[in-house]
Amino acid sequence: MRHDESVPPTPRRPKPAAAAALTVLCLGIGVSGCGGDSGAQAQPGKGGAPAPSSAAASAPVTASPARTSPAPSKKPASHSPSPSAPATASGPLSGKTVVIDPGHNPDNHLHTAEINRQVDIGTTHKECDTTGTSTNSGYAEARFTLDVSHRLRTLLQAQGAKVILTYDGDRAFGPCVDERARIGNKAGADAVVSVHADGSAVGNRGFHVILPASVRGGGADTSKIVGPSRDLGTRIAGLFVRATGSAPSNYIGGNTGLDTRKDLGGLNLSTVPKVFIECGNMRDPKDAALLTSAGWRQKAAQGIADGISSYLNG
Question: Which of 3, 86, 107, 210 has the most crowded Cβ, counting Cβ within 10 A?
């Protein structure tokens, strides 16, 4: 099975230091109570959080209504971003544009020739898209990313943001990674977040946010977005900890919850602040239990929304 474009070729598992990592993340964004009094706390050295209680799984952590991810339609492929619903008239994010990029597409596996087509990512060529990963029970990453993206859209629109999805179950496959970047660029987005879940070994747990490296070559030049993207990613990481109780990855990023890469077309070709978030490891049973919980997915969306809001509000 093809895995996520964002899966590194040789993930390593450093010695756990989750408690220190949580402190660094919280201090980095200046949030009081981060990872502490606000709810479930990750256990040091575990690289993850305990499964949510049945009460937490049955109720979202925000008053904003959660959206249930619809089954992807069989409409022909489109070449335009999915339209967003109108933003609220006022709110702390009024006048801001956020692009949400749900990783992969549930039907990519039916279009292998199309998604295997090579596209230019600035520094090299890479597949148009990949199928993504899944849990051992068959819950696909692409369905997870759409569900979290719908919840995230609802939360951001409630704050007045204009929200655009790169696709919304309205394409037969893709879009390709270069087109995903162009959608954010064309929108002049104030922030772009690509939502993913990882496919790593059992025992590898936790989330991480992927930041763009400094890249110049071909059509890629990230020099203007490296700094703002790091700010965006750091805020998302810290507030994701607070909202979900999950610890930073124990196998990527040295327990910081952050990873910097130069091999992702979605980041290389972006001209606006952009990050990826790997919300957990679908191949680990403990992480999978979280990722398949609607209550936890609402918390994940809340953490991402909080990070975006913190970044946009300065």
Answer: 210
